[in-house]
Amino acid sequence: MPCRLEFWGKVPFTWIGTVLLCLGLAVGCGENVKFNNPFAKEKKQATTQKPKPATETKKQETKPKVDKEALARQQMIKTTSLRGSGTSRFGSGGKSVGANATVGENVLRLQKEIASSVDFAPTMLVWVIDSTVSATEMRDDWAQATKQLYSEFAKNGLPGGKPAKDLSTAIVSFGEKTNFVLEQPTTDFQEVIAGIDKIPRDDSGKEATFATIGQVLDKYGPLKAQQLRELLVVVVTDEAGDDWNSVDNVVEKANSTGVRLYVVGLPAPMGRMTAETPASETRSDGLPAMVQGPETRHSQRINMKFSAGGFGGEDVDSGYGPFGLGYLAYQTRGEFLVSRLRSAPWPGSAMRFADDVMRKYPPQYLSEQKYQAMLAENKALDALDRAARQAQVEAMAYPSSQFAVVDEARLKNDLDAAQRTAARLEPLVNGIYDPLAAGEKDRDKIQDKRWQASYDLALGRAAANKARVDGYNQMLAILKGGRKFEGPAHNTWKLEPADTLEEAGSRLEKMRLQAKEYLERVIKEHPDTPWAYFAERELEMPIGWKWAEY
């Protein structure tokens, strides 16, 4: 009996102690500890969550969104560290502009990519070399640097102590046709060095670049799979390729093959297929001898000459490679390595702009289908695309401007002859201005900085030229309708450039103001860029006319 009483006397304290112990464990473990019943059904996640601290919420709200397209377009040219000296048109003190790396320097830079690939897995490297006349200097520089590269491999072995068998090499050249110079990939570095000197020269001036790349993928893709190797393709060329329009098909083939493609090439002239500098080769089929651009899938720059002589030429180094090759390199996770040559006419002394500025204006590396879909969604972009396809418009640089009043008949004949200049230019200018003006309502929907700058510059320039041409014609019509001299001794009218078109009418004055607004916006919002440079050049010539008497 005493024992039983002692037991029951201790029960309450034991029970209480057990409860307190459980509570202490629950509190001490916190909300990170969960007790799961293995026999219970799986519960849906609770829809209510513990509210986060205000500071954390604010941090999440201000965190920038990751723009995959923006990241993709940062491809630009991954050779910033190789950039050298140069002076921007804008600013003081000079800036690092353009890529000053030589072909040889870029070839040796690829040693890191080769080492990285070999370190990952045995690798097959295929050199695809432009054998046309214009690429002679590039080819010579490539040969010298590549011999040095393979001589080091032969002497010191592959990077990381990898055996020679882990790197096999083939050499292919192209011009009008594809030539497999070192067809069977070899791990003998001396055989590679000997093969470098066997590349034939192609005098056709034609470049089937993408057809050759397609053949390389067809030939070495299956071999890559059989030998369980990584596949690197390096293209060395000074042009965009006559068949660059087939790039989407080649990209699809490259993605299915599994290849990383690099290009050692020249920068594209901004917004142009060809540079103004004379080509270093000829061809007999009537097509441009040197196709080196543009840097975008289709040109986003109107082809309109400047009325004023200006302080520079119209060739501008875009800072990017030709679209097709740049797009292919990007899609295969490779790089376009911009090179500069010692004696080639392009890019030569073409205007260049600072890398840190131009990196903010990358081309959009989109397929043709996605590019057209983008144009269909925005009337301003579509208008710019159509305007940029129009034929070149010559400037009304030196129109007749002085009219002596000898008699009414002679004055009328002189004015009629002068108006024919404006009549000839008017439909050409309208062909560029009209679509741009029609797409203006979608201008504010443009998000991409390159497209914004390109559209504003195009509309500003087109409006300026239309105001000049139509204003010139209207001012002549006013004189033809009768105008009296204020000075009794005066007998000559002179039409002078001026920043006004009020006398020509409110419509033209409104157009002049539109041109000025767009051009000044380009200069303000896109400083130190090619677009600002061209806007400044356009504003060198007053957008208007006034009559003076002598």
From TrEMBL:
Region (Disordered): 42-70, 274-296
Domain VWFA, first and last residues per copy: 124-266
Basic and acidic residues: bias regions: 53-70
Coiled coil: none
Name of this chain's protein: VWFA domain-containing protein
Species of the source: Blastopirellula marina
